[in-house]
Amino acid sequence: MKLLLLCLGLTLVCAQEGNSDVVRSNFDIPKITGEWFSILLASDNREKIEENGNGSMRVFVEHISLLKNSSLLFKFHTKVNGVCTELPLICDSTGEDGIYTVSCEYV
Prior knowledge:
Lipocln_cytosolic_FA-bd_dom
């Protein structure tokens, strides 16, 4: 029993180890620009990302560009009436490191 508790305690200590790959507020925006490949979708409302059905949030990122005014341009693709359609989305910088705002009319 003591050995089991020791293993549990060590597991919890190991789980607390920080992840050095986590993005911090001083990350380099130009490093995220370029071509992207969506491999997974996640949502707390599964119906929004399902292939069959509504799927209104089933989008795939193709490209992220950094604009001259420090805004980000996302190029998404989604199906609209059964046709693959490009959806551009511009995120404006708030002036704070790594924080952007966006207004979206697609949903």
